[in-house]
């Protein structure tokens, strides 16, 4: 039902959107529709303003629920599996590959479940809230990808867990500022975990490296995913 | 139902919106629901339309209004049967949650239709 109304709303928007930006329509007086009724009352201006307000309010409130709790739980499980597999890695390249594949799978899960949740609301992942979230999360992740290449090339693998956790947490904090409260809180704890990981020996062949990765990408995703699932839907 | 009928009146400027609809067959349907027309209440109903439910705090933060303001407007919507309010207790205290009723959903849908009809009527007039 909510989806139907939301869908109808956007359909209304699509039918009227060109009118929003039609200068002829904006300037035409409504008085002629009410002959002899006194001064002009720009009812259509008010109507357009109201529709705009409804759209903006819906977009703002939609950001409360777009992040998927089920997706978070799924990402946590993938990270735990990756952590278990990473302990068997025989060289740094293998270790890095395991975690990069896990990151790719997790990203796919996140996008899939966010899109599913958006569809259930009758909106698209590419509308206001989803786009805002993506634009906020992407820069720190791109920075992380670039730093990963640099650190692997110079052989500083032990910095990767801390750097990944810190920058992922940064992205979640910035993206989460448009979302429900558990999201930025989770991002903050990710950042904290990253800092601690940077201060401890977190090489690929140490227990610390995989432990921090499991605690962050596994544990935090699992816990906060379950909280979001329960409070804000799957 | 009587209450809902009573809530259907003219726009705030005193001009019968039905006059716009006078150009269209569904003239009677263009009477505006003033209960939803108020900006804060429109915000509450719109927010609840895209969320299953929202807590008092979520709604207050989302709309950027005070506790008292939200309470007063939410009460009016509740009295009209547009929203339902449930209070529960968790470990830290009480939690107030709002949900849109089927009636509220229908009213918002009609309000959107009204707005579009006004815009469409203007456009038709301009083109004519």
How would you portray this structure in words?
The complex is a heterodimer of chains A (234) and B (128). With 234 residues, chain A is mainly alpha-helical. Chain A has helices spanning 2-20, 23-27, 43-62, 69-86, 92-120, 128-154, 160-176, 182-199, 207-232. Chain A has one domain. In chain A, α4 packs antiparallel against α5, α4 (69-86) runs antiparallel to α9 (207-232) and α6 packs antiparallel against α7 (160-176). The longest helix of chain A is centred in the middle third of the chain and has 29 residues, at 92-120. In chain A, 44% of the residues are buried. In chain B, a hairpin with a 2-residue loop joins β4 (83-90) and β5. By secondary structure, chain B is of the alpha+beta class. The longest helix of chain B is centred in the last third of the chain and has 26 residues, at 102-127. Helices cover 56% and strands 17% of the residues of chain B.
Summarize the model shown:
Chain A has one domain (66-232).
Average pLDDT for all residues of chain B: 76
Radius of gyration of chain A: 24 Å
| Rg calculated over all Cα atoms of chain B | 17 Å
How would you characterize the largest beta sheet of chain A?
none
Judging from the principal axes of the Cα atoms, what is the shape of chain A? elongated
Relative strand content of chain A:
under 5%
Q: What is the number of E strands of chain A?
A: 0
What is the structural class of chain B?
Answer: alpha+beta
Distance between the termini of chain B: 38 Å
As residue ranges, the low-confidence spans of chain B are 1-30
Q: Please list the strands of the largest sheet of chain B in the order they lie side by side.
A: 3-5-4
Indicate the mean pLDDT of chain A: 80
